[in-house]
Design brief:
267 residues; alpha+beta; nine-stranded mixed sheet; 4 helices; 16% helix; disordered N terminus; Glyoxalase_6; Bleomycin resistance protein; VOC_core; Glyas_Bleomycin-R_OHBP_Dase
Amino acid sequence: MTEARGSAGPSGAAQARYAPGTPCWVSLMVHGLTATQEFYGALFGWEFQPGPQQLGPYVRALLDGREVAGIGQLPPDRHLPVAWTPYLASDDVDVSAETVRLCGGTIGVGPLDAAEAGRLAIGSDPSGAVFGIWQAAAHRGTNITGVPGTPAWNELVTFETASVAKFYETVFGYTQEAEVSADFDYVTLHIGGHPVAGIHGVGSALARDRGPHWVTYFEVADADAALALVTDLGGHVLGPAQDSTYGRVATVTDPEGARFALIEGPR
């Protein structure tokens, strides 16, 4: 179990424009859009409104009327892994996408316009982990942080940190802070001196059926109560909650198998 490295902003803050490289949005593509809305609505208290439909049916999740995340529906013939995907902010998604390619990554979708909301691309790093790139226009990204039901942290789980951290540093301008430990391979990515994301190298412990992947942590008021609710709603708990410096953390999946983490901040 990895440790979350802090929250995305002050309690209940309405996020201003995100600095390039900062995770600014999370999105999930699923097969059953209605059932998925019911799961996350019950778990996090989200409500939903329609969003841009360029990639098919899509809704934005709202908390207290402010945008938190997106959920879209996969075409029936697309048998892709169901996973939460973080979007990293960019001032020019076309330039960022080309840099991804030049640095050994791939771009699978876009760049393309999402109506008046902004411009996006979806790609993968050289290890295969999928992420999005977002150039904001009308839609800046997640508009509330620091309260239960909002994204608190994004972490890449991969084989080893050194090479892939260099990729993200080159593409998005991060500075790196490595964990000083012989048996813990972890790098925190900073923008403007602030931690914004992490990379955790787990070596052979990486599940072969998943490969390198990003994990989104969502804040909850009570981790143990949230785990019980996940089970009641048809999701799965992958391990008991564990206490860390950054709070009480557990990893779960929704009913379609999308993996994410829950974090209850220190009291």
